[in-house]
Amino acid sequence: MKVLHAMAGAPVGGAENIFLEDVLALDDAGVSQAVLTRANNDFRLAQFRARGIATVTAGFSSLWRWPTSAALGRLSRSFDPDIAQYWMGRAGTYARRGRAVNVGWYGGYYQPSRFANCDYHVGLTKDIVRHIIEKGVPKERTALIHTYAEYKLAEPVSRAELATPQDAPVLLSLARLHWKKGLDVLLKAAARVPGVYVWIAGDGPLRDELQKLAHELGVASRVRFLGWRDDRFRLLAACDVCVFPSRYEPFGTVTVDAWASGKPLIAADAQGPAAYVLNEVNGMLVPKDDVGALTSAINNVLEKPALRESIVAGGRAAYEAGFTKAAFQRNSLAFYERILEERKIRA
User: Fold this and answer.
1) Three-point CA angle 312, 314, 315, nearest 5°
2) 285 in any annotated domain
3) Band of the pLDDT at 12, cuts 50, 70, 90?
4) Segment 102-161, tens digit of pLDDT
5) Are residues 209 and 127 in the same domain?
6) Are residues 293 and 341 in the same domain?
7) DSSP string of 147-216, one letter each residue
8) Which CATH number fits the domain that encloses residue 329?
9) Is the domain of 198 the same as that of 227?
10) How many structural domains is the chain composed of?
11) CA distance linking residue 73 with residue 129, whole number of Å
12) Are the beta carbons of 101 and 119 closer than 8 angstroms?
């Protein structure tokens, strides 16, 4: 089985992490792969090339499309894939008909028109699959394939290096610095919890604004803006609670990362987390934009060991049930084999 992946993507981000880790997991499962992507993240490119995965870069410009189309054509001819998977809407517009079965990958609520030349449509969550079907794609042409987290027994980052006392409770947020991520709500809640430290790992347009807010709230001395990190499991190993306060989130791999790492999760009830996080079962689920509710959840998790242990156990059970690397590999291979068999029957 040969699979070509096309992904435009930002330099960093959650969907970009999923893309990298899914390709590596399929490589571990023995799938022959090639990648067409932007030259905007040396870490991802190095990971692919270290595995011997044929990797070609292109601009994916929405205005001057010919160079990317030509690069895709050359890679398709040389690699001759059985399946071509187009990650997210921009790459989906480059799909072309040919021998390969075309698959569109949805990490959010994209319009299927972006994947007009795709034969099948994969959603990251059950609600995204519902959206795809409601937009007119036949159910039999869709599939649900969850992302995964491969827990690595990581060496915790040094708290001393992050100017954080060893005995201070640490809240970790893995998020882009964007309004959608609700980090202002987290800072306001932290201001109400004496002694708690906040680590925010991510980049984005609101960095200056969030730093200003931290100063205004009087918590700047307890907040660490870490920038984008490729060692999130080391951060998870060192923190006490993982907080995910997004206002908008189709899914959020942070949920699975926290479950896999054995850390208590507090999430806002954005569409994605609300479909998977059960309050006081596998995490704490609080209303979006509710500083008081988030503050209460933080205090409960920090002050009630039995509750903390219970939601960690529930998170681990949810992870084992459907979000392991083995589950992703099994579901992906079954899907690929099914669509190739259907192509054979049609032929």
Assistant:
1) 65
2) yes
3) confident
4) 999 999 999 999 999 999 999 999 999 999 999 999 999 999 999 898 877 779 999 999
5) no
6) no
7) -------PPPPPTTTTT--TTS-EEEEE--SSGGGTHHHHHHHHTTSTT-EEEEE---TTHHHHHHHHHH
8) 3.40.50.2000
9) yes
10) 2
11) 29
12) yes
Is residue 253 very low, low, confident or very high in pLDDT (cuts 50, 70, 90)? confident
Q: Are residues 175 and 267 in the same domain?
A: yes
- Both 228 and 296 in one domain: the answer is yes
pLDDT on residue 150: 80
Which structural domain range is residue 36 located in? 2-148+324-346
- Is 164 part of a structural domain of the chain? no
Q: What is the pLDDT of residue 309?
A: 97
Length, in residues, of the chain: 347
Residue 336 pLDDT more than 90? yes
Residue 59, helix vs strand vs coil:
coil
Helices 291-303, 183-190: axis angle to 10 degrees equals: 60
Report the 10 Å Cβ neighbour count for 51.
13
Give the containing element (helix H, strand E) for 70. Answer: helix 66-79
Q: Please give the pLDDT value at position 230.
A: 84
Q: Do residues 10 and 103 both lie within one domain?
A: yes
**What's the pLDDT score for residue 200?**
98
pLDDT of residue 214: 98
- Decide if 240 is inside a domain: yes
Asked if residue 115 lies in contact with residue 104, where contact means CB atoms within 8 angstroms, the answer is yes
The residues with which 297 forms a beta bridge, in sequence order, are none
Report how far residue 252's alpha carbon sits from residue 147's, in angstroms, rounded to the nearest whole number: 10
Q: 35 and 126: one domain?
A: yes
pLDDT tens digits, residue range 19-58?
999 999 999 999 999 999 999 989 999 999 999 999 999 9
Tell me: do 23 and 92 sit in the same domain.
Answer: yes
Q: What is the pTM of this model?
A: 0.85
Give the pLDDT score at 42.
93
Task: Using only the alpha carbons of the chain, give its radius of gyration.
Answer: 21
Residue 60 resides in a domain: yes
Element (H, E) at 5: strand 2-7
DSSP state of 278: P
